Amino acid sequence: MSAPETEVRRFPCTAGGGIAAGQRRLRWLLLGPAALMVVTAGASFVNGGAAVGGLCLLIALVAFVAWRMSGELTPQWVGLTPNEVVVRTRTRQPTLPRNGATARRLTESERDHLERLATTAGVVAPAGGFDSHLLGEVQLFASDLANAVLVASDEERWVVTPDDPEGFLAAMTDPPGPRG
């Protein structure tokens, strides 16, 4: 990021709606069997089955790592610097030039469409690239699609979900560039 961290106006992103529900489902789908594998490993070790116990621990570790990685790109906050739109996730901080960028709330039909695009097996992906007949090619960084805002620049189109979409939109209208 080109601007110092202190110049970022942050808008928190709290999980809600279909994304929060999907995160809960995924947690149970992955951590429930992982816990069962740890218990099974313990029982195997007690009964002299080191190979089976080791395999159970390996399966538990894989499930835990999959769960941990599933939230790596979930946005923690969306920020604005004088020159960039920033999304902070656990592992990344992508930026989009603010000069010439436009932003607007998604309509209810666009949000519903995007949720259908991002859903697989009852889990709504909080992040990813999608090609939509309504929105075009977009990068999704979402915590709650009810707050969805489309930010479009010459380079990319992002859908972000700040907890205060109206405040974010108002801040987007502040002229970009150095503050004096």
Description:
It contains four helices and eleven strands; from the N terminus they run βααββββαββββββα. By secondary structure, the protein is α+β, with helices and mostly antiparallel strands. A hairpin with a 3-residue loop joins β2 and β3 (84-88). α1 (17-46) runs antiparallel to α2 (50-70). It is elongated and about 70 Å long.
Map the helices and strands.
Layout: E1 9-12, H1 17-46, H2 50-70, E2 77-80, E3 84-88, E4 95-97, E5 102-105, H3 108-118, E6 119-120, E7 123-124, E8 127-132, E9 136-141, E10 149-152, E11 157-160, H4 165-172
Parallel strand pairs: 9-11
Antiparallel strand pairs: 1-2, 2-3, 3-4, 5-10, 6-7, 8-9, 10-11
Low-confidence blocks of residues: 1-5
Given the structure, what is the number of helices?
4
Q: Given the C-alpha coordinates, what overall shape results?
A: elongated
- Average pLDDT, rounded to a whole number, is 87
Q: What's the helical proportion of residues?
A: 25-40%
SSE sequence, one letter per element = EHHEEEEHEEEEEEH
Indicate the radius of gyration in whole angstroms. 20 Å
How does the helix and strand content classify structurally? alpha+beta
What portion of the residues fall into strands of 2 or more residues?
A: 15-25%
User: Gap between N and C termini, in Å?
Assistant: 20 Å
Strand order of the largest sheet: 5-10-11-9-8
Number of strands: 11
Main sheet characteristics: 5 strands, mixed
Task: Provide key terms for this protein.
alpha+beta, 180 residues, five-stranded mixed sheet, disordered N terminus, four-stranded antiparallel sheet
